Amino acid sequence: GESVGLHLPTLSVQEGDNSIINCAYSNSASDYFIWYKQESGKGPQFIIDIRSNMDKRQGQRVTVLLNKTVKHLSLQIAATQPGDSAVYFCAESGGGNKLTFGTGTQLKVEL
Amino acid sequence: GAVVSQHPSWVICKSGTSVKIECRSLDFQATTMFWYRQFPKQSLMLMATSNEGSKATYEQGVEKDKFLINHASLTLSTLTVTSAHPEDSSFYICSAINSGGAGYEQYFGPGTRLTVT
Fold it and tell me: Is the peptide bond before B110 cis (omega within 30 degrees of 0)?
């Protein structure tokens, strides 16, 4: 079936640098995308979402970019902090409220 | 607002026994809840959609007779793992959609760690 995947399983960045986490999706019918942060032993935490009629959305220190032409989604974290260390998942929905999660990227922030 | 709780947070049971996991929406009503399973260092896999007052909808490959779901009220869904085996050991996560909200955002619980010995 169609799936959502990530390019990088692990990303290491220096504290204060910007982080970019990527996600490729294959379901062209998907119209809603979400980024989640999951810390060890906890449930996913909503970060930011975007609908397919947009190509960019900004939050506090985070930006999500959507490129529908190449079916690519990215999460940018500005001034990465140690507290940002976690696994990040993209998820997509093609309607019906069901989510398909990507494989996840481990973000490690080095001091 | 939009808090989802799970109980227990962790449980150890012996092989062959059954264990029930609760998922509660604390400050909103949820007609629809979801149950996910997550193995170590893997992604969340949707197991089933729990609908208040009706039968759950299971994803392909998920045994409905083994993973019993009951959504008897607008704030509670339960997942019972029957005749548990070590391979059922996993992190079980639920989510809920606010019936009074926009209708699509899922709020996730903190997860339940199940270990079957």
Answer: no
Backbone φ, ψ for residue A83 (5° rounding): -70, -10
Contact across the interface for B93 and A93, Cβ inside 8 Å: no
**Using one digit for the tens of pLDDT, what is the confidence trace for A48-77?**
999 999 999 999 999 999 999 999 999 999
pLDDT digits (tens, 9 = 90+) for B27-46: 999 999 999 999 988 999 99
Query: What is the C-alpha to C-alpha distance for residues A18 and B30, in angstroms, rounded to an integer?
Result: 37
**Which chain A residues are Cβ-neighbours of B34 within 8 angstroms?**
98-99
Q: How distant is the Cα of A54 from the closest Cα of chain B, in angstroms? A: 17
pLDDT band at B58 (very low <50, low <70, confident <90, very high): very high
Distance, in Å, from the CA atom of B107 to the CA atom of A44, rounded to the nearest integer, reads 9
A31: left (phi over 0), alpha (psi -120 to 50) or beta: alpha
The answer to whether the CB atoms of B46 and A99 lie below 8 A apart is: yes
Distance CA A7, CA A20 (A): 11
Q: B57: nearest CA in chain A?
A: A98
Going by pLDDT thresholds of 50, 70 and 90, the confidence category of residue A8 is: very low
Asked if A32's CB is within 8 angstroms of B104's CB, the reply is: yes
